[in-house]
Design goal:
Blueprint lengths: L19 H15 L3 E2 L16 E3 L15 E5 L2 E5 L6 E4 L4 E5 L4 E3 L11 E2 L2 E2 L10 E5 L4 E5 L8 E3 L5 E3 L23 E3 L9 E3 L1 H8 L3 E4 L2 E3 L4 E5 L13 E9 L2 E13 L6 E7 L2 E12 L9 E2 L11 E6 L11 E2 L6 E13 L1 E9 L6 E3 L4 E6 L2
Parallel strand pairs: 1-5, 16-18, 17-19, 23-25
Antiparallel strand pairs: 2-3, 3-4, 5-6, 6-7, 8-9, 10-11, 12-13, 14-15, 18-29, 19-27, 20-26, 20-28, 20-29, 21-27, 22-24, 22-26
């Protein structure tokens, strides 16, 4: 009995052989390489630098290195080494790099060919379907129902006759579009300043969408009017539509919440309009995120009464020609307030303070603007028009 099979040379297991699994695995490995043969390329003469296990190549003529003398054979990378597989006549291989099939003819790999068939004067069920083409009619169809041959000659005016599925013959119709026949006529009435579409799934008619609705669909901009609302994917503007309740506690309390601020790095800026119930009562500020953050930095600033030295007292009118100081606070801890400002120049008058920073969010949560009063029992009121500009920058 031979040691291997006739065609694929798969090793046989000897009746008294020890470690039979070794021979079995060798045969399985060869089957895996040869069945449904697909090679990466047929242009390499030397092994590629980093082959993947199972990669196969048809070795090009002039092979070198580990493939030396393997011309036109199959190189198979398996278990960290190259194995040579000798093709036999009739083997087919798919070339992945070229998306073609090749056949081994015994001395060379060649493409598959398809024999040509002359269909002129061919018949179907005893009826002549085509007439032979000539110089006058390179493509000619025989209309056996009328007995007339309808040919298509270059530049000719003869109409083409085509056989329909019901066995009848007909001509090819063509329709032209006259100049200026296509206009911008409306398909449906539309409200001014709207775009046709739908904000919800449904089978009904398209709806007139506002610019804000379209921006929301595209994730361009989300506008929130109120003390609480959901953040957009990238850019959110949130404005207080009414005054918040006065804050009289010295511990920061939330006055403005933006929900669903998800993973990413966000830049925020609060432009805060506020009033203090007493000139000696300053404002304290903090920003919190209820999810998880990897870093947070912020600073607040406002014009004060100080002309040459810091006072911590918010002001609205320049007292000296040189202008007044812009004083501020900075914080790198989330949900923390460094210290409150010292007061305002005028009680119950509009003041402006800007609070901005960057926060890197790793788990989604709510962004909160928190406010405190410097003096317990003395109110700080965040006024309508206070604005958040929130942008995802990474």
């Amino acid at each position: 009995m031979p040691d291997d099979s006739t065609h694929l040379h798969l090793p046989y297991i000897d009746a008294n052989q020890a470690q039979k699994h070794v021979t079995h695995n060798e045969a399985v490995r060869l089957i895996d390489a040869l069945v449904q043969l697909s090679v990466k390329s047929r242009t390499l003469t030397a092994p590629p630098g980093s082959p993947a296990d199972g990669d196969r190549y048809i070795v090009a003529s002039g092979a070198t290195g580990a493939w030396a003398a393997w011309d036109l054979n199959i190189a198979y990378w398996v278990d960290g080494a190259w194995m040579k597989l000798v093709p036999q006549a009739g083997w087919l291989a798919w070339i992945e790099a070229e998306a073609i099939h090749l056949r081994w003819g015994g001395s060379a790999w060649s493409g598959l060919t398809v024999a040509s068939v002359d269909i002129s004067d061919s018949t179907a069920a005893g009826r002549a379907m085509l007439t032979a083409a000539d110089a006058a009619a390179q493509t000619a169809l025989l209309n056996t129902m009328s007995g007339a041959a309808k040919g298509l000659a270059p530049g000719g005016g003869t109409s083409a006759q085509l056989l329909r599925g019901d066995g009848t013959w007909g001509t090819v119709g063509a329709n032209g579009i006259a100049s200026n026949a296509v206009t911008n006529a409306k398909l449906a009435d539309m409200a001014q300043g709207t775009i046709k579409g739908r904000v919800t799934a449904g089978s009904g008619d398209p709806e007139d969408l506002t610019a804000d609705q379209v921006k929301g669909i595209l994730g361009i901009l989300t506008r929130i009017a109120g003390a609480s609302g959901a953040a957009g994917a990238d850019l959110t503007w949130q404005a207080l539509g009414a005054d918040a309740a006065a804050i009289t506690a010295t511990a920061p309390a939330a006055v403005m919440t933006t929900t669903g601020v998800g993973a990413g790095t966000w830049a925020f800026q609060y432009m805060i309009r506020y009033q203090s119930a007493a000139a000696a009562t300053g404002i304290g500020l903090a920003v919190n995120h209820s999810g998880t953050v990897s870093f947070f930095v912020s600073q607040s600033r406002m014009v004060t009464t100080g002309g040459a030295a810091a006072t911590g007292i918010g002001d609205q009118t320049a007292a000296v020609n040189a202008g007044q100081l812009v004083e501020g606070k900075a914080e790198r801890a989330i949900n923390a307030m460094s210290s409150a400002m010292a007061g305002v120049d005028t009680a119950n008058a509009d003041m402006l303070v800007v609070l901005e920073g960057i926060v890197a969010v790793t788990a989604s949560g709510d962004l909160e603007l928190k406010v405190a009063s410097e003096v317990a029992g003395s109110g700080i009121t965040i006024k309508a028009g206070t604005l958040l500009d929130l942008r995802r920058i990474a």
